Amino acid sequence: MISSEGSNAELRLRIYAEPGEEFNSKNLKVKTEVVMKNPHVKVEKMGLPVGVKPWEPTLDALRNDSRPFTDTKDLTLHLYTLPFPKGEQGDGGGGLTECLISDVLKHKILSVPGYGARVPKPAGTTYRVSEAAGKGLGVFATRDIQMGELIMAERPLMITPVVMPSRCTSELQGLSHNDFVQVKLHDAEKIFEWVVDRMTPENREALMALTNSHSLEGGGPIIGRVKTNGFGESEIVDGPGAECQYSVLCDALSRLNHSCSPNTFRKWCGASFSMQMRAARDIKKDEEITTHYVDILHPAKGRKGQLAVYAVKCTCVVCANPEISDPIRAKCLQHLQQIERQDWQRDFDVPTSTNPKPLLGNLDMYVKSGVETTDVYGYCLFMLMKMYAARGDIPTMRVYSEKYARWQSARTGLVIPQELIDKGFGMISVAEMVLRMKGKMKGKAKKI
Ligand SMILES: [Zn+2]
Q1: Angstrom distance (rounded) from CA 150 to CA 157
Q2: What confidence score (pLDDT) does residue 264 get?
Q3: Which residue stretches, if any, does this entry annotate as coiled coil (predicted)?
Q4: Spatial separation of the C-alpha atoms in residues 448 and 445, rounded to whole Å
Q5: Of 170, 208, 205, 164, the residue nearest 186 (C-alpha)
């Protein structure tokens, strides 16, 4: 079960016909509309309120796989099967994704360099899905996994707008808020059914096997599963300004439970059109593999409120001891804000201080608190690599260079050449210069 910032949409879509035009498939248009929060609201009943007519839009206009080109400016939503239309070039390895997306987004997806690459496979079996005490199902490591290793890579089951099209709001004037929400949920489920109808039987089965934490909130079975398991992805947006936000729904990846000390990074790979999960620290066999649904640097009380939206009551050690964890997280956040203003990952200058003690203290604190998925952890590794280079200590420089490389691979999915790691990302020249200077100084001392 995964969620993220994308779940709280601030835009909604309107399905409409121009004034004077009949509301049919030819005239149908969908546009982003008023800014509002995506309602994680409960309504008492499922289905339509008494007196409200069923919504029967003809959505043939959305079936557009056969269109020969994509209009790079068209924000109208269409149904597509990706990575390639059915029957064309297969699925490129990794399965098919049903999408309700704009042409703008489709064009963006198809324009990624190397698009159509195969979905990478982890080395051997890395996980199993089984009962997690008090949390339903969870994902567990079947062997020791090293920081940076690929744990899973998966093509999404579907990609849909966070706020689904629904009937024109003017039809709903005079309805109570409860009835209004009920109609919106009903209409959204109808469109979801269109998307699900296009799925392969295996994908449909996988979707319906996912947890639905919202079954008592008045929405249908598909919307409930999407709300429970879908997550936002910064690269799956209409473009600069993110005119439309989308929900990405996966299978096994959606089974990961939340932790306030998560041990994985999630990364979208545009070339293979897949979501990938890598280890953010070393993971032991049988350890639960986790992600985060909310910002782990928020205080425990804030996280509790945000997690309630996903029906999650976190009982982790970080949440159980806020008097200890909150000050550490606050310090981590402060540190993060300081380094966010720096281009530290490209700064290979010799550090002004070569005393590693304060950084080693911070690193120890961050490891104990389990915040390896935040940039401050990588920053400490990077700075320690530079400091030990500046001290002429090549073996210790390499220890941090190796860790930093693994952390960067986990975070970005990039493979860093071993030669670059051995050379401390170029810092070895500093270390060698320091050693030469030390050698000369020793030589001078001898002469005296
Ligand atoms: Zn927690």
Answers
A1: 20
A2: 97
A3: none
A4: 5
A5: 164
CA distances from 142 to 125, 251, 267 (A): 7, 18, 21
Q: What is the pLDDT of residue 444?
A: 60
Q: How far is the CA of 314 from the centre of ligand 1 (A)?
A: 4
Closest CA to 75 of 152, 168, 161, 203: 161
Residue 307 CA to ligand 1 center (angstroms) comes to 9
Ligand 1 centroid distance, CA of 135 (Å): 13
pLDDT at 59: 59
- For residue 210, how far is its CA from the centre of ligand 1 (angstroms)? 22
- Measured in angstroms, how far is the CA atom of residue 46 from the centroid of ligand 1? 32
CA dihedral 140, 146, 148, 152 (to 10 degrees): -30
Distance of CA 150 to the CA centre of its chain: 15
Q: How many residues does the chain have?
A: 448
Those residues of the chain that have pLDDT short of 70 are 1-46, 57-74, 85-93, 216, 240-244, 442-448
Ligand 1: centre distance to CA 116 (Å) = 38
4 Cα to the center of ligand 1, angstroms? 15
Distance between Cα 303 and ligand 1 center (Å): 8
What is the Å distance from ligand 1's center to 26 Cα? Answer: 50
Cα 290 to averaged position of ligand 1 atoms, centre (Å): 11
C-alpha of residue 316 to centroid of ligand 1, in Å = 4
Ordered by start, the domain boundaries in the chain are 5-119+155-255, 321-447
DSSP result, 204-256 = HHHHHTS--TTTTTT--HHHHHHHHH-B--TTSBSSTT-SSBEEEE-SGGGGP
Say how many Å lie between the CA of residue 439 and the centre of ligand 1. Answer: 52
Q: Give tens-digit pLDDT for 172-183.
A: 777 788 888 888
Asked if 320 and 277 touch (Cβ cutoff 8 Å), the reply is no
C-alpha 260 to ligand 1 mean position (Å): 4
Q: What share of the chain is helix, strand, coil (3-state, %, to 5)?
A: 40, 15, 45
Residues 6+ away with beta carbon under 8 Å from 296 = 260, 261, 262, 303, 318, 329, 371, 373, 374
**Residue 51 C-alpha from the chain's centroid:** 41
pTM: 0.81
Q: Answer for the pair 152, 146: CB distance below 8 angstroms, yes or no.
A: no
